[in-house]
């Protein structure tokens, strides 16, 4: 007879401060998709990919979608096993140990504020079509302040706010898809042979394997963010079952919401050469198909989508710092205020405000430095997640063999395909980066951040027995 599930304090410990478990799967998905911002990904990252990789975007983003869904399965299994706040940090810390946890904590502590700054500095470019003369820096500062204030409201309010913005950006993507599919200029089979613009001749030329791999890398980066659902696991009802669904739904919707309009643009553009040669390919297609007035409205919607993403990422950033402080991953005098939860909103207000201040400071960093500091960290994060997924399945199998019930945990299908393919894709990205001197600075910064995390563990956490060690706690009954 199987024994009852054992208390998994590593998965459920709350260290005294708890967030409000008031989100359903839908609310979690709304906030997670808002952080991904499919519309801004299509206009910014998708547009850059079209200019560089041409029709290779179709295969590149399709294959990137497959890889992203496999990585999402890793997140889903880990999140089901450890449904608490903190995102990648909490998962890796509890599965691979505090040394790896410290490295991932440093990755996210640095990159989340920098990503907020990058997004905020780009808002003026899109709002500028309606409000002339906006200063990018002051626009960014105002947007970050307002987003941080909004992120301090209760989680259900944030789900409604981000959901409303998300509806607007999804409508913009639907318009792109309709415009492309209504007047198809070429059969879909034309996309099967990847071709990009040859700057020398002005015509199309075959895209090599290396270019296609880079297009896949761009697609993976464009889809990134579905793992953000883990940040809100502690606020999601019936988390052991619901969090896996939230991650997978977020990934599926993201891939479809980006791949479909990009494919529609490739099929509906009057001239692929003109599309790929345009300074802003997606905006160029929109203006040519719907006119300038509609383009202005859609670009304002993209600006709102970016603001929405900043709110969602501010929510994630606050929960990262809150979770690390609650774990004791920093000195007590610093950790205590950051690990508090507002009695009124059940939100980690102090941690959210601190991360907002860091994002404000990042706005004064040169833009190219911001891009280099965030460019290669994603691959490292996915690598830790894939390794953690392998480790957590081995732990679950051992518990099952000992007679413990593990039926409550989500188990990804086709094991171990997902983590193995993810690790292979990440290894490919590293090889490409190492071979490209232009990526060395970004890789070096990412490696330096990780080295700083391990050094922090060696010099502080390991020497302080109460730091970053999971404390005994009662099982949270609402996780079942």
UniProtKB/TrEMBL annotation:
Pfam families xrefs: AA_permease_2 (PF13520)
Keywords, alphabetical: Cell membrane, Membrane, Transmembrane, Transmembrane helix
Localization: Cell membrane
Keyword GTP-binding: no
Top-rank taxon, per record: Bacteria
Gene3D superfamilies noted in UniProt: Amino acid/polyamine transporter I
Residue stretches spanning the membrane: 29-51, 57-78, 99-124, 136-153, 160-182, 202-226, 247-269, 289-315, 349-367, 373-392, 413-434, 440-459
Statement: the UniProt record of this protein carries the keyword Signal: no
Membrane association type: Multi-pass membrane protein
Annotated PANTHER family: AMINO ACID TRANSPORTER-RELATED, MEMBRANE PROTEIN
Stated name of the protein: APC family permease
Organism this protein belongs to: Agromyces lapidis
């Amino acid at each position: 007879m199987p024994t009852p599930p054992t208390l998994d304090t590593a998965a459920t410990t709350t260290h005294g401060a708890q967030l409000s478990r008031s989100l359903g799967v839908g609310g979690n998905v709304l906030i997670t998709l808002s952080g991904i911002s499919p519309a801004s990904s299509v206009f910014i990252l998708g547009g850059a990919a079209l200019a560089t990789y041409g029709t290779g975007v179709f295969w590149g983003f399709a294959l990137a979608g497959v890889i992203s869904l496999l990585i999402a399965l890793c997140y889903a299994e880990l999140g089901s096993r450890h449904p608490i706040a903190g995102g990648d940090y909490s998962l890796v810390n509890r599965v691979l140990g505090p040394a790896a946890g410290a490295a991932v904590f440093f990755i996210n502590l640095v990159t989340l504020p920098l990503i907020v700054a990058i997004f905020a500095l780009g808002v003026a470019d899109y709002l500028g079509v309606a409000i002339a003369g906006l200063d990018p820096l002051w626009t960014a500062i105002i947007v970050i302040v307002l987003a941080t204030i909004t992120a301090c409201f209760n989680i259900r309010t944030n789900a409604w706010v981000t959901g409303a913005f998300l509806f607007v950006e999804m409508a913009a993507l639907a318009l792109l898809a309709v415009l492309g599919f209504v007047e198809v200029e070429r059969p879909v089979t034309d996309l099967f042979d990847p071709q990009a613009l040859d700057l020398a001749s002005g015509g199309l030329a075959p895209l090599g394997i290396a270019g296609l791999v880079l297009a896949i890398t761009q697609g993976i980066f464009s889809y990134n963010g579905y793992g953000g659902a883990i940040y809100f696991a502690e606020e999601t009802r019936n988390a052991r079952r619901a969090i896996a669904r939230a991650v997978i739904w977020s990934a599926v919707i993201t891939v479809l919401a980006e791949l479909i309009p990009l494919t529609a643009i490739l099929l509906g553009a009057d001239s692929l050469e003109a599309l790929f040669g345009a300074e802003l390919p997606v905006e160029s297609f929109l203006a040519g198909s719907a006119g300038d007035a509609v383009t202005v409205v859609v670009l304002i919607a993209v600006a709102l989508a970016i603001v929405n993403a900043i709110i969602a990422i501010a929510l994630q950033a606050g929960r990262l710092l809150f979770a690390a402080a609650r774990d004791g991953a920093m000195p007590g005098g610093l950790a205590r205020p950051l690990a508090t939860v507002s009695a009124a909103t059940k939100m980690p207000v102090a941690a959210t405000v601190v991360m907002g201040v860091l994002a404000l400071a990042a706005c004064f960093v040169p833009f190219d430095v911001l891009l280099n500091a965030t460019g290669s960290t994603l691959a490292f994060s996915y690598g830790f997640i894939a390794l953690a997924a392998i480790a957590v399945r081995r732990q679950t199998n051992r518990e099952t063999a000992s007679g413990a019930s593990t039926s409550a945990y989500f188990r990804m299908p086709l094991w171990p395909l997902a983590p193995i393919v993810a690790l292979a894709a990440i290894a490919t990205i590293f090889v490409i980066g190492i071979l490209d001197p232009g990526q060395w600075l970004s890789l070096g910064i990412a490696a330096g951040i990780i080295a700083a995390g391990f050094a922090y563990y060696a010099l502080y956490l390991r020497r302080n027995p109460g730091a970053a060690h999971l404390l005994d706690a009662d099982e949270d009954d609402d996780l079942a």
